[in-house]
Design goal:
Four copies of one chain form a homotetramer.
Chain A (H helix, E strand, L loop, with lengths): L6 H4 L3 H22 L2 H8 L3 H8 L2 H26 L5 H18 L1 H12 L6 H25 L9 H20 L17 H15 L4
Helix pairs in contact in A: 2-3, 2-5, 2-7, 4-5, 5-6, 5-8, 6-7, 6-9, 6-10, 8-9
The first copy, chain A, binds a DNA duplex (21 and 21 nucleotides) through helix 4.
DNA sequence: GATGAATGAGATTTCATTCAT
DNA sequence: AATGAATGAAATCTCATTCAT
């Protein structure tokens, strides 16, 4: 999913570009694709309606650009984790990943919600392309962590890596959802605000994988 | 979240009511709340626009009614599972639940997507109420299964029930998502179409819980 | 070119329908298809913008309806001429036709200009269909007059009917254009306002055909 | 209708000027004045929008320039015919004229369509001026041919020159329209593609004039 | 109780034009 | 002399909602 066009946009001063994308992100992630309003965006930005259309051509174009950029940020974030944490054991890797994810979502809660939008809205153009790109990246990242763990002897042969990746992805994703979506833990008090309990979650998760996922 | 309004609606013949709610469900779950169009709904139904507004008052009213009814169906479905499967062991319960969930989603894929809509769309009226109701019901249902399992001695003391419920909920929900949302397994081939592999997933899941989730 | 849809429109009171079509005709014939403005039309009519779109769906739909109706009127007009003037000689027929045409254009100058619009505007939807329908009708009508004239012995064998029809059509059409388009006679004073000179034109035209058009 | 503005334009290299006017001609003649888009023109040209406005000031200015230039070309074309064909008889003159016209339209079909645009579009600025200039030139040209013919004794006294000019103009114009506008002969097969039949048409036309147009 | 005509605000998008660089 | 970013009015069209019949 390459960055689509928006030539005009690239010539703008960095600061202005940033402001535009932030406001657009907010709009899309709060109201969904259909609910988002170009009028509202330009109103908040204080720029002319025509300008936004010169930058991105269509509402679709704007959305795709915003989402592509969000995806790039996620990838950068994960790449960062890997670069800074080579040769550690699995639980440490996962810990860093989850921590990075949680930190990212706290910092860019809207980008995460953009992803959630994609899951259900059939009217979003190129939805399938975007979603597939994202899912593949996520699962492959986790699977690569598991493969390294196996090479280090952390995971027994009976552990099915694909299944394990799926489960880790599911739990971590739900964990992260709980940071971005209110009521996701339905008031059970599972998460305290300060991230202190992440250690416990990670430990559980790795134990689960190591002991509980058998090959088919 | 009580059912409001819709007095006029209830007097309609059952068949007509069914058709209206089905079409409205389709519209909302495919296009999201904002993207859904009353015009499109009455167009597909072949009834007058005024009628729909007499039944439900507003677009909000229609959405709330549709969603409430969907929630009722989910509850009925789960109640059914419990009634038909008392006194079994945990893995059997979870198995039945997951099977029922998968069956339900195959039969009513749109209702499930209505739930996904809720997760992100801030513009949906009473979103928080609806979401909270749903999450609570889901987590409490699983927690009650776990409590029964502990009473039967299936779960050691060191297992934290809330955490376990959360993880089960996460994995099951992601599993179900993969039935309703294309590309959710990103082509890893985790699921075959005929549900046959559910047994394996459940076994893994219970093992994980029994061995891997420690009290904080 | 059948009348396209516009179901909603047909239920309106006759008087209102008339007013709408008149105003729309004016707009299109004065400004062309692209230049015509829905805003301007509803502004002049004093009705809501949404109403016009409920009647005709799109700008295209409105244009096609207006044009189709204009074509029907032209056909009715010519049918009328034929019905009232059977068994006469050619010059009398042509005279009646031209008179009817001139009368029609004086009464509905805008409809005639709608036809002229078609000639050049590639962006008008279904332009070719509409134009072909109109041209065929016109040429066939004149040709049928010539065939009858030949049967009555008014036209010698050497007269090529297709060529003659084309020439008559050309001159009559240009004659009629001069009624609708200012400056068409470039100030040569060929036409006095009161139609009195039509007799002379017709006489010339028939003489031309009878004496001057040879078979290829 | 003097050429206004365009000082900056004249300093451009000949090749560039040509390209700009060609593209502008295409746009106007295909879409009409209102439908034509400056955006589309500069897009096709690959030049900056601001440049076009520096050359011609406004859309009106561009159109007037394009049209004036087209008119000059038509005049040049006819002047050429006269210069190369002095002292011939009427039918020969008309033949050359028609041939030149047909050749011109085949080579510059868009310029001809520009003229047709003028006939109906009230929103074109200075429409009347332009149209009058064109019509006068055409009718006067033909009339001058007829006057020369009379001096040579080709036309009897009873032939009304204005009427004759009008008829010739009408038939020739329609004949030329059939080259530029599809369906103008409505499938009657009156014209073969290679211009070979022009001889026949001219012969008919002159005969018609000589025998059939009487003074009022 | 059902209808569907009427509404006007608001949606996305295109337009000709200006002007600082 | 050329550029293209900025503009805001106006374009077409859709929307949820009202209400008289």
């Amino acid at each position: 999913m390459p960055l689509i066009a928006a030539e005009r946009f690239h010539n703008l001063p960095e600061e202005k570009k940033e402001r535009i994308l932030t406001v657009a992100s907010e709009e899309f992630s709060q109201k969904g694709y259909a609910g988002a309003s170009i009028n509202s965006i330009v109103g908040r930005l204080g720029i002319a309606k025509g300008s936004l259309f010169q930058y991105f051509g269509t509402k679709d174009g704007l959305f795709r650009f915003v989402f592509s950029r969000a995806l790039e940020r996620v990838k950068d974030n994960l790449r960062n984790v890997r670069d800074n944490a080579r040769r550690k054991e699995l639980s440490s890797h996962l810990h860093d990943t989850l921590l990075a994810g949680a930190w990212f979502i706290r910092k860019h809660p809207l980008l995460y919600r953009l992803y959630l939008q994609l899951l259900t809205d059939d009217t979003i153009p190129f939805r399938n392309d975007m979603l597939l790109a994202l899912r593949q990246y996520s699962l492959e990242y986790i699977r690569s962590l598991l493969e390294e763990a196996r090479e280090r002897g952390e995971l027994a042969d009976h552990v099915d890596l694909n299944r394990a990746a799926f489960m880790i992805d599911a739990v971590m994703d739900r964990f992260l959802q709980a940071q971005a979506v209110p009521y996701m833990d339905a008031g059970l008090g599972l998460f305290d605000g300060d991230m202190a309990s992440i250690q416990g979650w990670i430990k559980d998760l790795v134990q689960m994988i190591q002991k509980g996922v058998e090959k088919v």
